[in-house]
Amino acid sequence: MEKIKLLIVEDNKLDRKFYDHSLSESIFEKRLTENGTKALKVYEDWKPDIILLDLMLPEESGYNVLKNIREKHDDQSTTIIIASSLSDGEDIRQCAKYVIQGYLVKPIKPKELNEKILKLHSDRHRKS
After folding, report:
1. What whole-number distance in Å separates Cα of residue 40 and Cα of residue 10?
2. In this structure, which topology does domain 4-115 adopt according to CATH?
3. Under 8 Å CB-to-CB from 102, ≥6 apart: which residues?
4. How far apart are CA 120 and CA 100, in angstroms?
5. Which terminal CB of the chain, N or C, has fewer other CB atoms within 10 Å?
6. Which positions ≥6 away from 68 have C-beta within 8 Å?
7. The model's pTM
8. What gap in Å lies between CA 53 and CA 66, rounded to an integer?
9. 103: how many CB neighbours lie within 10 A of its CB?
10. What is the mean pLDDT of residues 78-87?
11. Tell me: the pLDDT tens digits for 46-74?
């Protein structure tokens, strides 16, 4: 079975390590970046199936990464899941404008992570 290409965009080193260890190697081919500028470069070069995106990033914010992918690249097919400690309804609404498939509020339980990401990704492709 072909692995799902997953781009993880997270500036916190411990959170990146958590995602790397929690997300199954047998399911996901992972790339990890620590800022929005690098995330956009990896996105353009690698074309991931799923992006797990933090909002509070150095250089280029997660909001800008999301907007860039949806508007500049006119990409509506990549599954984008926000993983953020920001839980305000306004933050969620701002992201929803750019069509996200999920919004996970940190801290995220390791046992739920693979299941949630796979469910949000498969739900998206079932609808399209």
Report:
1. 13
2. Rossmann fold (3.40.50)
3. 81, 82, 116, 117, 120
4. 10
5. N
6. 40, 60
7. 0.94
8. 8
9. 17
10. 94
11. 999 999 999 999 999 999 999 999 999 99
The full DSSP string for the chain is: -PPEEEEEE-S-HHHHHHHHHHS-TTTEEEEEESSHHHHHHHHHHH--SEEEE-SS-SSS-HHHHHHIIIIIS---SSEEEEEES---HHHHHHHHTT--SEEEESS--HHHHHHHHHHHHHHHHHH-
Q: Please give the Cα distance from 110 to 90 (Å, whole number).
A: 26
pLDDT > 80? residue 124: no
The amino acid sitting at 56 is: M
Q: Where are the domains of the chain?
A: 4-115
